[in-house]
Write a structure and sequence with these properties.
The chain is an all-alpha fold. The chain has one domain: 434 Repressor (Amino-terminal Domain) (Orthogonal Bundle). 60% of the residues lie in helices and 0% in strands. The protein is built from five helices and no strands. Helix 2 crosses helix 3. The longest helix is centred in the last third of the chain and has 15 residues. The chain is globular and about 35 Å long.
């Protein structure tokens, strides 16, 4: 049995070979641009979209992954990483 680790949305989509547009359609997210923004830490998903993302990725992408990415980006912008 192969166990996959938690990952970012970007890692998940690259691993599954999905585009932002394909994931948006599957998740019921109205715009591929919204998924793009989530992938690259430019926007934090709404609570409803977090639930959809967690369900579709079978728990591989969670709110923690978005929060961790946001914290990493913030630290990098401040010169901490």
């Amino acid at each position: 049995m192969v166990t996959m680790r938690a990952m970012t949305l970007d890692e998940y989509l690259r691993t599954m070979k999905l585009t932002s547009a394909q994931f948006a359609e599957t998740a019921g997210i109205p715009s591929k641009q919204t998924v793009h923004n989530y992938r690259h830490g430019l926007r934090f998903p709404t609570a409803a979209n977090l639930v959809r993302i967690r369900e579709i990725t079978q728990g591989l992408v969670t709110a923690d992954d978005f929060a961790n990415e946001r914290a990493r980006r913030s630290a990098a912008e401040q010169g901490g990483i």
